[in-house]
Amino acid sequence: MFDYFHPSHVFTSGKIGYAKPDPRAFTEVMDTLNENAMDWYYIGDSYGNDMEGAKNVGMKTIHFNRHHGPEGEAADYVVYSEKQLIELLKELSA
Known about the structure:
Blueprint: H1 13-16, H2 23-33, E1 41-44, H3 47-56, E2 60-64, E3 77-79, H4 82-93
Parallel strand pairs: 1-2, 2-3
């Protein structure tokens, strides 16, 4: 992971003191990066922890539902494979 991300940009619940879906887990990251949550997409594979948590702080969400688990309205997009995720990211960045 550290080949792709600087250690200061890797966040764990132990490091920040909050665990998903607690909204503070998301806001702590955004505050640390000095970013507005509404400008970001959160990609996660857990509907409850990831989609609902991120949506509660105003993030746009992509549910990477590769295990075909529960889905719901907190996901702006749902993809089921890496290929679909890459295609969606290309589409969103165009």
